[in-house]
Amino acid sequence: MNERITRPSSQDEYEDYCTEAPYEIQVPPIEWWAQSTQRKRWPRLSAFAIEILSIPAMSDEPERVFSGGRRTISWERMQIGVISLERTECMKSWFRSGILGDDREELLVGAD
Hints:
By secondary structure, this protein is mainly alpha-helical. It has 7 helices and no strands. It is elongated.
């Protein structure tokens, strides 16, 4: 396959890309941007797209745990250490999800 790749004359790859006529692609976006054709035509834009599209989706659980940390560290508890906060938030998350089952008391006593 000896396809001729035409590079836009502008230095702004994003603008050039946006002004092209749209067309349908038959593969997932990350695969499309990873094709050598796209990488040669849009070198910086394809690298950026691959980097962004490679970020895994985040579930709502980490967000919930992060928000729970703000409730744990009230203005009165500002001296709580990072390790204590991490342990507390992990335990709360594990209790809610049922990971720990009925071993709660034993785990709490063993943590001291």
